[in-house]
Recover the amino acids of this structure.
């Protein structure tokens, strides 16, 4: 008999991830309140359940791929009605939360799971919907040593890489620290291109120099915010995501929450968070996060300091 895995949250990421588990031979039982998400999952061989708790009954592992920490806690504890997943899953099951949520929420959720007699790890991902479909996601795992081998086996059909970052919460910590670097560096690259434009520099010239010099970074060489130098970057298709700006705004907000909790000075990160928060509810709402360059280009020039000549 195939090993049973429950999959809760069959959206843009969860749907294709669950499909890869089916392909690998697991019996995947899923739940999502969205009929559209369910329809696509069924087409890929996922068996639907009527609730998260129902999906979890008899499963050796449960994967959650949900929008926020509140969603994860709601499902684990049955806070919005329905049976708590933690009461329905067999004792000792491995709960793997792949959602991007606050470090503290991850630790709280894992604490509830352990209290209920289970094992829990956080395993947020990078690689986006393309990586989810291709089974090449990078998993950043926060787990006890004792659980990591089993987690690797389950994650493998969905993964390009599985990185054990430390104990519970360490996966989420790695994810938000990485994405804070990414958010800041995308703004830096965008400002540099706009400044270059105004200095008469072509995009190609700046790219040729910076991509092989000390300005080199992923935001420049893989997700370049101007069309041309990197043909596969979203800038070449009118900034269709890719990695949508609201998700970047969300991850930066989580990083700021963690910075506040740890009294960490992240002034540049905070500025990037403010810029992405505004962009994500405005013209960036449905666009890749690299479209922030258009906002940089449009900002009115209001020097705050006297220009030195
Ligand atoms: P999504 O909105 O497409 O999917 C989330 C799904 O959860 C939806 O289908 C929704 O109906 C479902 N859901 C909501 N409440 C539920 C409940 N109580 N029980 C079961 N299902 C429920 O979002 P997504 O893009 O798949 O992202 C999921 C997570 O992955 C988020 O935390 C996101 O930050 C993270 N993430 C997304 C990407 C990306 O590129 N989309 C990349 C890395 C990480």
């Amino acid at each position: 008999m195939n090993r049973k895995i429950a999959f809760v949250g069959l959206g843009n990421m969860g749907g294709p991830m669950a499909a890869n588990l089916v392909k690998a031979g697991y019996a995947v039982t899923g739940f999502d309140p969205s009929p559209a998400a369910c329809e696509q999952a069924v087409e890929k061989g996922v068996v639907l359940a009527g609730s998260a708790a129902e999906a979890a009954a008899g499963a050796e592992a449960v994967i959650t791929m949900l929008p926020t920490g509140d969603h994860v806690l709601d499902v684990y504890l049955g806070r919005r009605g329905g049976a708590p997943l933690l009461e329905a899953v067999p004792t000792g099951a491995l709960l793997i939360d792949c959602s991007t949520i606050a470090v503290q929420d991850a630790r709280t959720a894992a604490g509830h799971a352990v209290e209920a007699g289970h094992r829990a790890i956080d395993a947020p991902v990078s690689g986006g919907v393309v990586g989810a479909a291709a089974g090449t996601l990078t998993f950043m795992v926060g787990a006890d040593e004792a659980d990591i081998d089993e987690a690797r086996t389950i994650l493998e059909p969905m993964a390009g890489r599985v990185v054990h970052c430390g104990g519970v919460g360490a996966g989420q910590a790695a994810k938000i620290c990485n994405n804070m670097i990414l958010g800041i560096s995308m703004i830096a690259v965008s400002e540099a291109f706009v400044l270059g434009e105004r200095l008469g520099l072509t995009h190609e010239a700046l790219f040729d120099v910076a991509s092989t010099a000390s300005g080199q970074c992923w935001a420049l060489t893989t997700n370049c915010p101007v069309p041309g130098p990197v043909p596969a970057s979203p800038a070449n298709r009118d900034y269709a995501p890719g990695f949508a700006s609201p998700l970047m705004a969300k991850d930066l907000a989580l990083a700021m929450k963690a910075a506040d909790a740890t009294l960490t000075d992240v002034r540049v990160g905070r500025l990037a968070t403010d810029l992405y928060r505004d962009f994500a509810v405005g013209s960036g709402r449905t666009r890749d996060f690299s479209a922030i360059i258009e906002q940089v280009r449009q900002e009115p020039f209001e020097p705050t300091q006297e220009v030195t000549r």
User: Anything to note?
Assistant: The beta strands are 4-8, 27-31, 47-48, 61-64, 94-97, 119-122, 125-126, 137-142, 159-166. The first helix runs from residue 14 to 23.
